[in-house]
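Hey, sorry to bother you again with one of my protein questions. I've been puzzling over a protein and I'd love to understand its fold better. Take your time with it, there's no hurry, and the full record follows here:
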Amino acid sequence: MTRPAFHLAIPVDDLTAARRFYGEVLGCPQGRDSDTWVDWDLAGHQVVTHLAPGRRGDAATNPVDGQGVPVPHFGLVLPVPDFHALADRLRAAGTEFVIEPYVRFEGQPGEQWTMFLRDPAGNALEFKAMADPSRLFAR
């Protein structure tokens, strides 16, 4: 069964910075674009950065496993080797993490590697890798 791709549109205040971050740092192929938006292929999902100048408030946080997780956020669930390759790529690019890569819920059904960061516009992203991918929705 083929899974449908999701579509997510997010605000950014600088398309040049968005192009650098999503295209160069994350390595997302660019799709269509205009003067006010850019489509990105995030592992087969369509993320669109829309130019929306102006300051937005900081995101709220929610305590999860002793960490202040930014809300809202979005990201991908990756295979473990891909998670570590992305973490290395982000470190090499000088990315400042909101939550450094670490193992969350260790020894529990939802054990996972996770990391949080923000794009240049302040949008929060989470990338994670499940110790057992079949337990993604485990309770």
User: Anything to note?
Assistant: The first strand starts at residue 7 and ends at 12. The radius of gyration is 15 Å.
